[in-house]
């Protein structure tokens, strides 16, 4: 049950089901699909205050797969299950779901009308999920569906040291990063991916050990990588591999302090067709004590693209040092989304020049928000319209100890409207999904799903309290002399 008695939250959990990690909201916001451990659930979420279980599919590994998992020294108590990790809507009638399947990733099509797994020609519903879903439930991953194709960032092997960015499904040749060329460090941890409607690129956010710095200590860096949707792979060079893969460093730092270099999650806020701002939450590799600190940095898509259009880095194989590539420019530019296949010369260049020299700086040159004693695990961004007609950016930030911070972005500095205790006992927020049309946020965690109203206006007793809260979801209703949701109070505010 939720932890704050002043704020009733609708809650759903099913007997013997745990790890409600993957959430997918139907476009009409009437149904929430949940991927859990050995289970796929369909929940009816029509109105605020109600979450009702509608249908359930039990999808655990076979006894044979579970015993193979245990034989490979994995835990039968905690790891040799099917933790559902990928959940995307293919069309109106089918979902595509993937799970760890006892360290042997598997995927399946889900028929929504009768909520069952679709059997393949061989009568077996499961497809190989390698390259689409992690083997290890502890590994972070990301996946999205764009134009009927699945773009995924995950670990591609049992040992967990071969990260991959792949494209599959659809009718085109599957593509992936080149493991031999080490485009990604062995410890890469993916946290998010985005594709804006009207844009021809897919962006991946992750962290990895930096190869370009000559430090004795292992230095983690946050990265953004980019691939083009039109990529068809190379003809002779980079066959079935990306020919547009580029990556760059993301900076989130305050002057005079250790940088926030460990990226936890990211979210995108669309601005206009094909353009967005990216909000990412960070912690630091050099945190002292148990409390640590967290930062939120915002990046414009233009700032990201500018770095990808800048100079490349290159590795001197004799000295093993990275420096700026100073050679001649090529046209079309290697890694760009130019139409048509690139020349072998450009692809040979790209094999070695996948890292950009420039670093992506946050909007304003510094973090939007820094908080001590907190670790943020998730971020979601909403853009409500205030009573005056203007729009606001509101960040919902889930923490490692089960709180939800609601932060409004204001011209001078962000304002924390409230901090909500979600659970009675501290545990991490695993996923956040906004339902702006319903005015609620869904929170996935190990023990279930919570439905949190975006507005909590009744807590403000007077006009002054209502206005000073600076909550874009609330407005003072002078007719009824009460603080109400802005959408209800509009005509009397």
- CATH architecture label name of the largest domain: 7 Propeller
Quick one: overall form? globular
How much of the residues is beta strand, in percent? 35-45%
Count all strands and give the number.
34
The CATH class of the largest domain is identified as Mainly Beta
Please describe the biggest sheet, giving its number of strands, its sense, and whether it closes into a barrel.
Answer: 5 strands, antiparallel
Give the C-alpha Rg.
23 Å
Q: Which fold name corresponds to the CATH topology of the largest domain?
A: Methylamine Dehydrogenase, Chain H
Number of helices: 5
Overall number of domains: 2
Terminal Cα separation, in Å? Answer: 35 Å
Overall pLDDT confidence: 90
Task: Quickly list its features.
Methylamine Dehydrogenase, Chain H, ligand-binding face of the semaphorins, domain 2, 5 helices, mainly beta, 39% strand
Reconstruct the topology from this structure:
Blueprint: E1 10-12, E2 22-25, E3 31-36, E4 39-44, E5 52-58, H1 63-71, E6 84-89, E7 94-99, E8 106-111, E9 116-117, E10 127-128, E11 142-146, E12 149-155, E13 163-168, E14 175-176, E15 189-194, E16 201-209, E17 220-228, E18 246-250, E19 262-272, E20 275-283, E21 293-300, H2 301-308, E22 313-316, E23 321-324, H3 344-352, E24 355-360, E25 369-372, E26 376-382, E27 394-399, E28 403-408, E29 415-421, E30 431-435, E31 440-445, E32 448-453, H4 463-468, E33 474-477, E34 482-485, H5 486-489
Parallel strand pairs: 18-24
Antiparallel strand pairs: 1-32, 2-3, 3-4, 4-5, 6-7, 7-8, 8-9, 8-10, 11-12, 12-13, 13-14, 15-16, 16-17, 17-18, 19-20, 20-21, 21-25, 22-23, 26-27, 27-28, 28-29, 30-31, 31-32, 33-34
């Amino acid at each position: 049950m939720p932890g704050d008695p002043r704020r009733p939250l609708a809650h759903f959990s099913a007997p013997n089901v745990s790890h409600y990690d993957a959430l997918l909201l139907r476009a009409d916001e009437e149904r929430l699909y949940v991927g859990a451990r050995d289970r796929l659930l369909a929940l009816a979420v029509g109105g605020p205050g109600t979450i009702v279980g509608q249908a359930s599919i039990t999808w655990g590994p076979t006894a044979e797969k579970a015993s193979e998992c245990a034989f490979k020294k994995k835990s039968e108590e905690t790891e040799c299950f099917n933790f559902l990790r990928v959940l995307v809507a293919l069309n109106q009638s089918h979902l595509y779901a993937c799970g760890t399947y006892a360290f042997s990733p598997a995927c399946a099509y889900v028929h929504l009308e009768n909520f069952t797994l679709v059997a393949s020609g061989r009568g077996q519903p499961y497809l190989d999920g390698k390259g689409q879903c992690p083997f290890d439930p502890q590994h972070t991953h990301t996946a999205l569906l764009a134009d009927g194709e699945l773009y995924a960032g995950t670990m591609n092997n049992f040992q967990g040291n071969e990260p991959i960015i792949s494209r599959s499904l659809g009718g085109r040749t599957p593509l992936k990063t080149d493991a031999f060329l080490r485009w990604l460090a062995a410890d890469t941890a993916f946290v998010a991916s985005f594709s804006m409607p009207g844009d021809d690129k897919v962006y991946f956010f992750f962290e990895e050990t930096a190869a370009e710095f000559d430090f004795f200590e292992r230095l983690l860096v946050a990265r953004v990588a980019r691939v083009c949707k039109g990529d068809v792979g190379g003809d002779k060079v980079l066959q079935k591999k990306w020919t547009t893969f580029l990556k760059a460093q993301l900076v989130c730092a305050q002057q005079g302090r250790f940088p926030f270099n460990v990226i936890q999650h990211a979210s995108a806020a669309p601005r206009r067709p094909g353009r967005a701002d990216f909000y990412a939450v960070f912690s630091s590799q050099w945190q002292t004590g148990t409390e640590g600190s967290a930062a939120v940095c915002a990046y414009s898509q233009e700032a990201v693209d500018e770095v990808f259009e800048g100079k490349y880095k290159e590795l001197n194989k004799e000295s093993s040092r990275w420096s700026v590539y100073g050679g001649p420019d090529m046209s079309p530019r290697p890694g760009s989304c130019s139409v048509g296949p690139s020349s072998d010369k450009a692809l040979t260049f790209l094999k070695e020049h996948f890292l950009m020299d420039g670093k992506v700086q946050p909007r304003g040159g510094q973090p939007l928000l820094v908080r001590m004693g907190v670790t943020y695990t998730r971020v979601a961004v909403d853009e409500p319209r205030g009573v005056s007609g203007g729009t606001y950016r509101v960040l919902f930030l889930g923490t490692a100890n089960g709180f939800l911070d609601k932060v409004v972005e204001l011209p001078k500095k962000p304002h924390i409207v409230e901090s909500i205790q979600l659970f009675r006992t501290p545990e991490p927020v695993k996923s956040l999904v906004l339902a702006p049309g319903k005015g609620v946020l869904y929170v996935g965690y190990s023990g279930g799903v919570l439905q949190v109203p975006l507005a909590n206006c009744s807590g403000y007793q007077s006009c002054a309290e209502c206005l000073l809260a600076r909550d874009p979801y609330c407005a003072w209703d002078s007719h009824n002399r009460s603080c109400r949701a802005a959408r209800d109070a509009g005509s009397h505010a």
